[in-house]
Amino acid sequence: MSIITMATTKGGAGKTTVAEMIIGVVHNMGYSIGVIDSDPNCSLSSWLMYVSNMAIETRQVLDETKIVEEAKALKRKHDLVIIDTPGARSQSTVFAVGCADLVIIPVQLSNSDVKEAVKTYNLVKGAADMANRHIDARVLFTGYTPKTNIAKEVRKTVAKHSLPVLETRMHHLVAYKEMSFTGKIPKKGRAGAQGQLLIQEICEAGHLPFLMEYKRAS
Ligand SMILES: Nc1ncnc2c1ncn2[C@@H]1O[C@H](COP(=O)(O)OP(=O)(O)OP(=O)(O)O)[C@@H](O)[C@H]1O
Ligand SMILES: [Mg+2]
To answer: DSSP assignment, residue 47?
Structure first.
């Protein structure tokens, strides 16, 4: 139904962690997810196959020309398709962004995170122009430390560049790091609450239509 791509040319910004949270929360709600890992490091696919115990159809697609075809095939079978991308400028990112309904651009609290987010946002706009359609793209603040000067500065810089932003913020929390070892998606505490809020916000933006139907039925 929907394709959501994690992208930023900044390495280590939190793409894979955000992908893990979205997959975990949506999976725990009982929906099916297909995953494409286009990062040669295969972090997300390795985590899904060897750390997490979720049964998720996962494809490592390192030939970028196959990404769109694979994403469309997974979209026919699953409620949601998640694509993870490498943390550097690459052809994979262009294809993964080009077939997305929503691109999430994680930004940690550094100037280089913002700079790369701007480049990534422009890449999304270019891909949308090329495909002659709208592709929604939103910055997600990750590794966030509220009430700090750096957080204020980064928010100001993002606003100056007119980048659309998700209201939900993923704080700098050990729970997210632990998830990479345990495979367990935080359900409680701040990380659990932020995961729920993120899904709710993506749903309200119209990118998880199956959840809207679920809400109407219940
Ligand atoms: N909100 C957070 N709080 C604490 N640690 C975090 C958070 N988000 C990510 N991290 C940690 O930051 C590191 C980088 O995160 P992650 O691997 O998700 O980034 P990435 O963008 O996928 O990196 P790459 O570009 O290398 O693929 C990891 O060690 C992860 O556990
Ligand atoms: Mg990654």
So the answer is: I
Question: In sequence order, what are the residues at sequence separation of 6 or more whose Cβ sits closer than 8 angstroms to the Cβ of residue 129?
Answer: none
Measured from the alpha carbon of residue 140, the closest ligand is 1
CA 42/CA 61 separation, integer angstroms? 9
Question: Is the pTM for the entire model greater than 0.90?
Answer: yes
Closest ligand 1 atom, residue 144 Cα? 1
Query: 3-state DSSP call for residue 191?
Result: helix
Nearest CA residue ID for atom 30, ligand 1: 177
pLDDT digits (tens, 9 = 90+) for 61-110: 999 999 999 999 999 999 999 999 999 989 999 999 999 999 999 999 99
Look at residues 57, 64, 136, 69 and name the one whose alpha carbon lies nearest to residue 100: 136
Q: What residue owns the CA closest to ligand 1's atom 15?
A: 14
Specify the CATH number for the domain of residue 70. Answer: 3.40.50.300
Q: Give 64's DSSP letter.
A: G
* Ligand 1, pocket residues at CB < 6 Å: 11-17, 39, 43, 87, 142-143, 170, 172-173, 176-177, 180
Measured in whole angstroms, the distance separating CA 182 from the mean position of its chain's CA atoms is 20
Compute the distance between CA of residue 37 and CA of residue 62 in angstroms, rounded to an integer.
8
Domain extent, residue 125, equals 2-217
Total domain count, the chain:
1
